[in-house]
TrEMBL record:
<feature type="binding site">
    <location>
        <begin position="16"/>
        <end position="18"/>
    </location>
    <ligand>
        <name>FMN</name>
    </ligand>
</feature>
<dbReference type="Pfam" id="PF02525">
    <property type="entry name" value="Flavodoxin_2"/>
</dbReference>
<comment type="subunit">
    <text>Homodimer.</text>
</comment>
<dbReference type="GO" id="GO:0009055">
    <property type="term" value="F:electron transfer activity"/>
</dbReference>
<dbReference type="InterPro" id="IPR050104">
    <property type="entry name" value="FMN-dep_NADH:Q_OxRdtase_AzoR1"/>
</dbReference>
<comment type="function">
    <text>Quinone reductase that provides resistance to thiol-specific stress caused by electrophilic quinones.</text>
</comment>
<keyword id="KW-0520">NAD</keyword>
<feature type="domain" description="Flavodoxin-like fold">
    <location>
        <begin position="2"/>
        <end position="197"/>
    </location>
</feature>
<dbReference type="GO" id="GO:0016652">
    <property type="term" value="F:oxidoreductase activity, acting on NAD(P)H as acceptor"/>
</dbReference>
<protein>
    <recommendedName>
        <fullName>FMN dependent NADH:quinone oxidoreductase</fullName>
        <ecNumber>1.6.5.-</ecNumber>
        <ecNumber>1.7.1.17</ecNumber>
    </recommendedName>
</protein>
<dbReference type="GO" id="GO:0010181">
    <property type="term" value="F:FMN binding"/>
</dbReference>
<keyword id="KW-0285">Flavoprotein</keyword>
<keyword id="KW-0288">FMN</keyword>
<comment type="function">
    <text>Also exhibits azoreductase activity. Catalyzes the reductive cleavage of the azo bond in aromatic azo compounds to the corresponding amines.</text>
</comment>
<dbReference type="InterPro" id="IPR023048">
    <property type="entry name" value="NADH:quinone_OxRdtase_FMN_depd"/>
</dbReference>
<comment type="similarity">
    <text>Belongs to the azoreductase type 1 family.</text>
</comment>
<dbReference type="InterPro" id="IPR003680">
    <property type="entry name" value="Flavodoxin_fold"/>
</dbReference>
Length: 200
């Protein structure tokens, strides 16, 4: 039995390709691990707040010294960290928005990146503490970034690889529904993405 966390950051609800791709990935994970449990976190619907000065400050105050107000400020971040640490597999829906991830997914990243909890500093530099997880990324984009002229602007996959690796999640596989706005490509983009799914 695996615990799966599905992060959603699409603006397009039922029309979303990254959500469809995420569901297809989860279906294949469940084929492999039939009793798996899925938790879905829609970061856009949740209206996850941006990291702000009050929340950041609480990150550096020992838990037993937090005031009631500070505890309330940090509650959201604490819950997201607890959820992340508890799961085995994370499926991250990452639609391309203006060349990068949606701000809701970036806000989640900012809330789970906690010195001393999800990463630390060792003699040789940062050490990720979120280990033993498998991550699948369900990317969707109007253009094509895995090859051709767009490859020079393929920022999202390398960014997520770097960030997740920083926290210790080094086992990452990216699946792409791409060219969703490109004539003659868009018609088959989703089918191609779903066919590319392999669960290791
Ligand atoms: C506000 C906005 C910005 C976008 N920016 C880009 C972009 O920079 N590059 C790109 O290839 N596609 C871009 N797209 C297209 C989306 O990546 C595409 O519609 C994709 O299907 C979104 O994922 P979703 O279907 O899961 O919502 C953009 C779409 C929106 C709505």
């Amino acid at each position: 039995m695996k615990r799966i966390l599905h992060l959603i950051s699409s603006l397009q609800g039922n029309e979303s390709y990254s959500i469809k791709l995420g569901h297809a990935i989860i279906e294949k994970i469940q084929d492999k691990y039939p009793d798996s449990k899925v938790e879905e976190l829609n970061l856009v619907d949740t209206e996850i707040p941006h990291l702000n000065p009050a929340v950041l400050r609480t990150f550096f105050i020992p838990g037993d010294q937090l005031t009631a107000e500070e505890k309330e400020s940090i509650r959201f971040s604490d819950e997201l960290v607890k959820q992340l640490l508890a799961v085995d597999i994370i499926v991250i829906g990452a639609p391309l928005i203006n060349f990068t991830i949606h701000t809701a997914l970036k806000a989640w990243i900012d809330h789970v990146t906690r010195a001393g909890i999800t990463f630390g500093y060792g003699k040789n530099g940062p050490v990720g503490k979120v280990t033993g997880k498998k991550v699948y990324v369900a990317m969707s984009s109007g253009g094509i970034f895995s090859e051709g002229p767009g490859k020079a602007n393929d920022f999202v996959a390398p960014y997520l690889k770097a960030f997740l690796g920083f926290l210790g999640m080094t086992d990452l596989t990216v699946f792409r529904a791409e060219g969703l706005k490109v004539p003659d490509v868009k018609e088959h983009a989703m089918e191609k993405a779903i066919d590319s799914i392999k669960i290791d």
